[in-house]
Structure formats: C-alpha cells, structure tokens
Amino acid sequence: METTITLRSEIEKGIAELGMNFSSFGELSGINRGIFSAILNGSPPKPISLNQMEAITRAFGRPEGWMFDLYIEECFYDGKPNRRRVEPFLIRCAELGRTDCIREVLSRLLEDLKHISMIFDIAETLFMSGKIQESLIFYECVVENEKYHHSERLAVSHYRIFRAAIGEDNEQNLRAALRFEPFCGKLPEHHRLDGLLQLTNVYYSLERWKTTEHYADELIEFSQSVYENETLKRNKNKKYEPLMTERPLVKYYGQGYLVKGGMLEAQGHYKEAKRFIERYADLSWFEGLDEEGRNEVDKFKLFAEANLFNLEVLMGNFEYLDKYTIFLEEHPQEILPSLLTIIESANKHNFFIDQVIHKFSAYIGHEENPPEIEQNYYGSTTINRILPNLFYELSIYYVKKENYATAIDYSLQALEKSIKIRNKNVFMKCVPFFEEFRIFATSEHKKKYEAIMKEMYQNA
C-alpha cells in the first residue's frame, strides 16, 4: 500500500501548505470533513472516488489528471479491481489522453481475462459518446486478448476499429478492410448491414471490382433477408420494435444495386448497368419507411436520374447534354461526380464541352476546394476520391485542345490530390503525363512538380 499512502501524503501535504484543516478544506473542495477523515485516517483508509479525487485536484488548483498515476491503486484498493472506480477512471484517462495510466490499468486487469467484458463496455461507452479515437485503445485490447474467436464482442471490436480507420488514405482503407473482413459475418444484424455497406464502398473506391461485386451482392441478399424478417415481425406483432440500424434499411438495399450499376458503368458495361438502375430508381414500395427512409428513397431516385444521363453520355449520346446540364443546375450535389463522367466521355468520344466546363468552372477551378453545397450528401472522402480523377481527365481534355499550360496545371492538381489520398492509379498516370508534356511546362510548373515529388519522397 506504499503508493496509496504516498497519494494520501500528497493530499495531507497540500492541505497543510494551504494552512487549512479538514473542515476548511472540506468547504473548499465540497467534500464532507468526516469523509476526509475517513480517507486519510481511517483504518483501513476509505477509498477515494474519482469525483472526490477531481474535487481535491480543483481545490489545490492542480491541472486535470493530477496524481492519476498514484490514483491507480485506488482502483485496486483491496488487490482486486473495483469496477465503480476502474470504469470512470479509465474513461477519464481516455478523455485526458493519459494512455500511460490506461496501459497500466489494462495490464493489471488482463491478469484475469474475465475483465475483457468490462474493457469492451468502456470502449462502447466512449465510442457511443462520440469519443472514437479514445475508444480504440480499449477495442485493440479486446482484439488482442479475447480468447473466443467467434465472440460477438471480438467481431464488434474489429468493426469499430475498421469504421474508425476509414478515411482519405486508400492504402489505410485497404489494410483496415482486409483486417475486418473475416469478422463481418459474425456481427449482429444491425452492425453486419453497415459492415457490408462500408466494405462495399471501400472496395468500390479502390476499383477492386470482383471484391466490390462480392460484397454488393452480399449486401443486397442480406438486407433483403433482414427486410423480409422485419416485415413479417411488424405484421405479426402489434408491439413491434424495429431493428435499430445506423441507416434506414432501404439504404442498404438500394446501395447494393447502386454500387453494382456504378461498377458496371466504370468497366464500360453500360447496357448491363442500366438494368441495375431500374432496381433502385423507385424504392417507394419499401414497407415501414419513416421520414429518413423516404429521404433515402428520394436520393436513390435522384441517383438513378443522374446515372441514366451518365450512361447516355458515356455511350456518346451527347444530345442529352443540355438536359443533363439543366439537371445539374437543379441538383448541385451531383455536379462533381457528373462532371467527371461528362469530361471522361468527351475525351473518349473526342467531343468538346467548353460550355459545360465554363458553366461549372467554380467547381473545377484552381481553388483548393470547390464551393460549399447546401445539404451535400457526399462526404469529404467521396469528394477527395473524385477530384484526382476529375483533374486528370481535364488535363487530357486540354491536351486534345492543345492548351498545354492548362493541361499541365490540372495534371499537377491531380498529382497532388492522388498523393494525398494515396491513389496509385491516378498517380501512375500523372507522372508519365507530365514527363510526356514537360516540353510545354513553364518554369513554375517544373518547380511545382519537383516540389511535389520531393515532398512525396521525404514522406514515403
């Protein structure tokens, strides 16, 4: 109990330095005099709660987390972990970034693996309160020490780690997906739906079409099965409680078909892609839709309209371009992804679309970011996936027009963006592009190119 005595000695020392007794310090800290006496002089001394410890810290004017390293013994006061002290202490340590204390407590808890359940509960508490990064040390602990491979909490821990890892870095996304995949099928239904959705989206963004198709098919099949079971329960039970999914159930079903169509479009199978658009164009037949669900149905209808325009333009039917432009003016959320398709198609069919580029120039200019769009349903990850490809297609477009300066400007933007998100496909096209047209590059172009490549080399 040496460290416990040291903690109490520090408290006694602090009270003495303030020239106070238990009564006056009790008033200052808000802790009853009798409790102070029991904490410092009891036989055995009364354990200190975390709230009391923090009240003492504030009364002394010390920074948050003061003496937390010594407070660890209070969590194991009688040699065994006391959940009422351990749990709030670990959560507070996570909030304050005290990983040193967290690791020490976890090390002691893991002497008995039955405490894995407590560690998992702490992770869930942090995650559900929005403290995603703070929760990861606890989920990793569960992953490393859970002895039952088919445990639901092991699968959920992998799922949480996977969700937290998804971002703009393609290589990181791939590593996270590969690590999570074996556990997706072991998740409870509501998490499994979202796990399949995220895996589908990750592999789609990486253009790994076979894997994308596998997970899109699984997402469609599983979401349809869940929908049928939920519909049956709702019709049979007056006290029906819906499955608490992160997104409306219709989102998972529709997204599977959306991705299938997008994947076929990306591979040039336009007629096949049209068949899948029909599957999500009108999902109003879905039972049990609430307001959020109806909003998703409206979005899928919008996606279908945009994607039908995409397919017509990709097939070289540019007579649809005027209608498409009007559609984009009415639905600015679709401008960036649709512009990518339009410019890609113009390059493929040797068609010039200066009027479209001019109309939407604010979205594809040389600014760091495009204009803000109200109620934009595309997140930054999606936008950052689109931009390198969009800039690269623009560089090709302007080469065809023999406007080499503008072409090189856009190729450098594409290069910068591709490095930022580790998009190897675009990067491997931008470097030979610049070298091929280096003869047309200005000294500023060359300086920027060399600076980009130098930074990439240093950060590799």
Mean pLDDT across the residues is: 91
Secondary structure tally: strands: 0
How does the major sheet shape up?
A: none
Radius of gyration equals 29 Å
CATH architecture of the domain at 188-315: Alpha Horseshoe
Strand content: under 5%
CATH class of the domain at 188-315: Mainly Alpha
* The CATH topology of the domain at 188-315: Serine Threonine Protein Phosphatase 5, Tetratricopeptide repeat
Low-confidence stretches: none
Backbone structural class = mainly alpha
Order of helices and strands: HHHHHHHHHHHHHHHHHHHHHHH
Number of helices: 23
Q: Whole-Å distance between the termini?
A: 49 Å
Shape: globular
Describe how the helices and strands are arranged.
Blueprint lengths: L1 H16 L4 H8 L3 H9 L8 H11 L7 H8 L7 H14 L2 H11 L6 H13 L3 H14 L6 H14 L4 H15 L4 H17 L3 H28 L12 H18 L3 H11 L10 H24 L6 H10 L4 H15 L4 H6 L20 H21 L3 H17 L3 H13 L6 H17 L1
Helix pairs in contact: 1-5, 2-3, 5-6, 5-7, 6-7, 6-8, 8-9, 9-10, 10-11, 11-12, 12-13, 12-14, 13-14, 14-15, 14-16, 15-16, 16-18, 18-20, 20-21, 21-22, 21-23
Question: What would you note in describing this structure?
Answer:
The chain is an all-alpha fold. Among the domains are: 188-315, Serine Threonine Protein Phosphatase 5, Tetratricopeptide repeat (Alpha Horseshoe); 333-371 and 378-460. The chain is 72% helix and 0% strand. The longest helix is centred in the middle third of the chain and has 28 residues, at 209-236.
